[in-house]
Specification:
Blueprint: H1 2-19, H2 28-37, E1 41-44, H3 46-50, H4 55-62, H5 66-77, H6 83-94, H7 98-107, H8 116-125, E2 129-137, H9 138-148, E3 155-158, E4 160-162, E5 168-171, H10 182-194, E6 199-203, H11 206-209, E7 217-221, H12 228-233, E8 236-238, H13 241-256
Parallel strand pairs: 1-2, 1-6, 2-3, 6-7, 7-8
Antiparallel strand pairs: 4-5
Helix pairs in contact: 4-5, 5-6, 8-13
Protein name: Phosphoserine phosphatase
Organism: Euphydryas editha
EC number: 3.1.3.3
Length: 257
Amino acid sequence: MALFSLKNNLQLATLKTLSLVSISVMSPQQTVQELFRTADCVCFDVDSTVIQDEGIDELAKFCGRGEEVKKLTAEAMGGNMTFQEALKKRLDIIRPNVSQIKEFLDTFPIHLTPGIPELVKILHERGVDVYLVSGGFRSLIEPVALKLGIPTRNVYANRLKFFFNGEYAGFDENEPTSRSGGKGMVIRRLKEQHGYQRLVMIGDGATDAEASPPADAFIGFGGNVVREEVKRRAAWYVTSFQELISSLAIQTSFDMN
């Protein structure tokens, strides 16, 4: 029995030693997994990641311009045009006014991706700061943040502009999330302002993948839609949030031992 116990202790000590080995000797996927398990900040994309829909597509559909905008969204997320170009083209088609935005928010339910409430809750319990960084619209994303217990100050997204009569007047082009590379700009600022050492970006699109670096790691998410270019670029690609939850659970179990 003593020999068996000694063997178990040696095995455990070996595992703990291996866990401290520099991530530089790990495979790319193992490196990302280790960074996620030890992250001090996690940033999520929203459309087709935190929620099951593309918010701009749903708004377009609500305004009667669904098919035209959906095609442009697919091109933008596949990296076939600059993000700001795609955003402008889509909004010029929709031209949503204040009353339409309000009615959309009042009638369209939030479809959270399965597992995201639990994952955000676990991250918060571990003391990890969680942000929503999106090329979507702040007015549509703040309700999602509130539902997940994420402070609205942790939301970085685009702002729509309206004339005094409520008609569409464009979008704030000074928001970094309105252009290609904007998510990386947000992440760089977060690291500078808060000193995050292990910041992980999670998302389904090209703008998410290009945010790493400056993000320390990128996790591709294909739980709602699989984008082959993003899948190819991601060292760790998951198709459900349960995979991330399980990854954290493994570490928690290891720490308890």
